[in-house]
């Protein structure tokens, strides 16, 4: 399975931008990069995904390195409701096109 | 638009028993995936159903089985329960069974095996 590496936890202040890194040095050319998050006591929630180009949506931005070996999820202005575990997932042939989850990054937002 | 629902919310069983968990997919979705999430870990993929056929399976033994119905709702059955089966079971639905689809998750069923 294609693997990702994320920090175990990160802290950020409320109303400041947050940059969540993910390393995926073994990514193949057809693997998509997906981000999901899981708020406490809830099921996971889709955040964003991309292949090569940077992506933006109402929740976040995804910046993908030119060599695609790393990516960064950007929350432009964190709120207390963004406190969650964020999962970076590669999805492609190596994972039989399924979501294969790691341990994720626990994001702590300080008021 | 109704989201993904799961039942029951919580369940307590004893070792060796059998359990059935249910999932109603989001309207318009034909694909359901099931995951097991142990405490403090990320979800682990169990299997996926696409239009009533199994469409991929993770590293789970055959005592984990499933069904998808014509209305695309789904069941997860676990036989001969073991203590390690205690976990949160999540189902997710999507409108495609592809690499770029978005999965929408239910709140999960918390299974405790004593």
Give an overview in words.
Chain A has strands at 9-13, 18-23, 32-38, 45-50, 55-56, 61-64, 70-75, 84-91, 105-110. By secondary structure, chain A is mainly beta. A 5-stranded mixed β-sheet of chain A has the order 1-9-8-3-4, with no helix packed on it. Chain A is globular. The mean pLDDT of chain A is 93. By secondary structure, chain B is mainly β. Chain B has strands at residues 5-7, 10-13, 19-24, 31-37, 44-50, 53-57, 64-68, 74-78, 87-94, 104-105, 109-113. Helix content of chain B is 0%, strand content 50%. In chain B, the strands form 2 sheets. In chain B, strands 2, 4, 5, 6, 9, 10 and 11 form a 7-stranded mixed β-sheet that branches. Chain B has a 4-stranded antiparallel β-sheet with strand order 1-3-8-7, with no helix packed on it. In chain B, strand 5 (44-50) and strand 6 (53-57) form a beta hairpin. At the A-B interface, strand 4 and strand 8 of A face strand 5 and strand 10 of B.
Describe, in short, the structure shown.
The complex is a heterodimer of chains A (111) and B (114). Chain A is mainly β and 111 residues long. Chain A has no helices and 9 strands.
What is the CA-atom radius of gyration of chain B, in angstroms?
A: 13 Å
Arithmetic mean of pLDDT of chain B: 94
**Biggest interface, residues from each chain:** A-B, 23 and 24 residues
Regions with little confidence, pLDDT below 50 for 5+ residues of chain A: none
Radius of gyration of chain A: 13 Å
What's the N-to-C terminus distance of chain B? 37 Å
Question: What's the SSE pattern of chain A?
Answer: EEEEEEEEE
The beta-strand count of chain B equals 11
| Largest beta-sheet characterization of chain B | 7 strands, mixed
Shape of chain A: globular
Uncertain spans of chain B: none
Shape of chain B: globular
Sheet with most strands of chain A = 5 strands, mixed
Average of the residue pLDDT scores of chain A: 93
- Structural category of chain B: mainly beta
- In order across it, which strands form the biggest sheet of chain A? 1-9-8-3-4
Tell me what portion of residues of chain A adopts beta-strand conformation: over 45%
